[in-house]
Write a structure and sequence with these properties.
- It is a single chain.
- The protein is an alpha/beta fold.
- It contains 21 helices and 16 strands.
- Strands 7-6-5-11-12 form a five-stranded parallel beta sheet, with helices on both faces.
- A hairpin with a 2-residue loop joins strand 3 and strand 4.
- The relative contact order is 0.11.
- Its EC number is 6.1.1.19.
């Protein structure tokens, strides 16, 4: 899947022989991943993707034969220095000096847009996207699932923005429902205005836990019901207390999100959709979709045979709305307000059927755009505990990872005097959390381990940060090199070629992640880039080499650092410059 100007001669060559327009071939050609077997080709063509008569039954032998026939019709030239065949592929090796010159020029010229400007994305329409992520519940613990939702949603938003889409980052708070009746009563009994101001999340959680112990008491139940009823009726005093809960909590969330490097364009919440969910129930009724059960609840039939073998409950027997009704109202409202092309919801996989029902009901209501809504689901994290015990608040995790990282940095022999060790520990620690989370498929559950996440060697966020800092300090030492007119003949060692070949593949990896919204492609690409750069750093010294060689190597390392930094930022990591 090619974009690099280097692939153009290959495309032209194939286009002539196959009599196909070059743009039809862009996705049939891909850069070859770097492997232990050195001296591999740079690009390969998948023969199956261009042969009209190649049915899925084509045997490997047929494809190999077709590859050989095609290769015989192609001639090397000034750009393509070698053509060979593999299993079902035709492989092209590019003139080595041209490879170095073109890749380095492109990386340094495009800067933060390298890879994003690729032809791979030329046919992708620019869209307006609402991404709903994080979405904690006020007064309940901000658990590790919210952390996953926050960093995954942030990654998807970063990627979409980088690719030129317009993104609205939405935080849909759990700020309504019966639990607020209980919380209101709890606050009247145990609340403290000062504590609510200074640490709202902690204080409301403590109040909620305390009142919950008495939740079975008939009197408490009645008071809670009354409090929530007053809320629904917009009683001024009750509403004003609820508003304080919400406003102070959001203020504290914003501060914590800032530590994560995350921001939101809109703080929405279930409370916005009280009235509107009643309108949705009326619409469902008018369209003949709302059915009453014997118990008096309202359901929507989702079964194919219309026999209620699959249904979704949208109304309580007392006529009040449920979570899904509020979600329906929210979806319709957002679509009206933002007229976006697509909406993405990032939550854990236990909510998969909720979103299937949501999208199905919207379709039944006649909203075709529901087809373009998407639920990005993720698995559960087991075993995340701090030294003080179970994780309750996100802030505990951030403080823990920072203090562990500070400790590791203090005991590491390589650590130099750092200007701001706390800030650095925070950024490196966050990189460790993000990489551990993003290494596998998002839908997989995983076992969290502090030790594994914070290793400085191996496939960790710490290793990425360490590599970036090393390459940065190399640049600082030799940074005044003139990098426009380097002699690429000095970059012919296998370790230099491996880095160049890997840089060539960056746009394909971005394309892959943009298609399935999985960060793992970018993670594994950056880890490989860091390992290749570490090897090259050892075998291709800048210091003590002839000026021309030093200059060329400097340019190579600068290109590697630039792409590493771009990829890290997409994942939500701030690259550090010293460590």
């Amino acid at each position: 899947m090619r974009s690099s100007p280097l692939s153009h001669p290959v495309l032209r060559m194939l286009s002539k022989v196959l009599d196909l327009p070059p743009e039809n071939l862009i996705k049939s050609i891909s850069a070859v991943p770097v492997s232990k077997k050195r001296h591999v080709a740079d690009f390969q063509l998948s023969v199956a993707s261009v042969m009209e008569d190649s049915s899925s039954e084509s045997s490997a032998q047929d494809l190999h034969l077709q590859a050989q026939k095609l290769a015989e019709r192609l001639k090397c030239d000034a750009v393509v220095s070698e053509i060979s065949t593999g299993p079902g592929t035709v492989n092209f090796r590019i003139n080595r000096e041209l490879l170095a010159k073109t890749v380095l020029q492109q990386v340094l010229k495009d800067g933060s847009e390298y890879g994003v400007k690729s032809e791979l994305f030329s046919t992708v329409p620019r869209q307006k996207v609402v991404i709903e992520f994080s979405s904690p519940n006020i007064a309940k613990k901000f658990h590790i699932g919210h952390l996953r939702s926050t960093i995954i949603g942030n990654f998807i938003a970063n990627l979409k923005v980088a690719l030129g889409h317009e993104v609205i980052r939405m935080n849909y708070l759990g700020d309504w429902g019966m639990q607020f009746g209980l919380l209101g009563v709890g606050f009247q009994c145990f609340g403290n205005k000062e504590k609510l101001k200074s640490s709202p999340l902690q204080h409301l959680f403590e109040v909620y836990v305390q009142i919950n112990k008495e939740a079975d008491d008939e009197n408490v139940k009645k008071l809670a019901k009354d409090f929530f009823r007053k809320l629904e009726e917009h009683d001024e005093q009750t509403l004003s207390l609820w508003k304080q809960f919400r406003d102070f909590s959001i203020e504290e969330y914003i501060r914590i999100y800032k530590r994560l490097g995350v921001h939101f364009d809109e703080y929405s919440g279930e409370s916005f959709y009280q009235q509107k969910s009643q309108e949705v129930l009326k619409m469902l009724e008018d369209k003949g979709l709302l059915q009453k059960t014997v118990k008096g609840t309202g359901v929507v039939d989702l079964s194919e045979k219309k026999d209620l073998s699959l249904f979704s409950t949208v109304m309580r027997s007392d006529g009040t709305s449920l979570y899904i009704t509020r979600d329906l109202a929210a979806a319709i409202d957002r679509m009206n307000k933002h007229s976006c092309d697509t909406m993405i919801y990032v939550t854990d996989k236990s909510q998969s059927s909720h979103f299937q029902h949501l999208f199905q009901i919207l379709k039944l209501m006649g909203y075709d755009w529901a087809e373009r809504c998407q639920h990005v689901s993720f698995g559960l994290v087991q075993g995340m505990k701090t030294r003080r015990g179970e994780v309750v608040f996100l802030e505990d995790v951030l403080n823990e990872v920072r203090s562990r990282m500070l400790q590791n940095m203090a005991s590491a022999k390589t650590t130099k005097e750092i200007e701001d060790p706390i800030e650095t520990a925070e950024k490196v620690g966050l990189a460790a959390l993000i990489i551990q989370d993003f290494r596998g498929l998002l839908s997989s559950d995983y076992q969290f381990s502090w030790d594994r996440a914070l290793q400085s060697r191996g496939d960790t966020g710490v290793f990425l940060q360490y590599t970036h800092a090393r390459l940065h300090s190399l640049e600082q030492m030799h940074g005044n090199e003139q990098l426009t007119d380097i002699n690429v003949a000095c970059l012919q060692e296998p370790d230099a070629i491996s880095v160049l070949q890997h840089l060539l593949r960056y746009d394909e990896v971005l394309y892959q992640s943009s298609q399935d919204l999985q960060p793992k492609h970018i993670v594994s690409y950056l880890l490989t880039l860091s390992h290749l750069a570490a090897v090259a750093h050892k075998t291709l010294p800048v210091k003590g080499s002839a000026p021309e060689v030093a200059q060329a190597r400097c340019c190579l390392f600068q290109a590697a650092r630039s792409v590493l930094a771009n990829g890290m930022k997409l994942l939500g990591i701030t690259p550090v410059t010293q460590m």
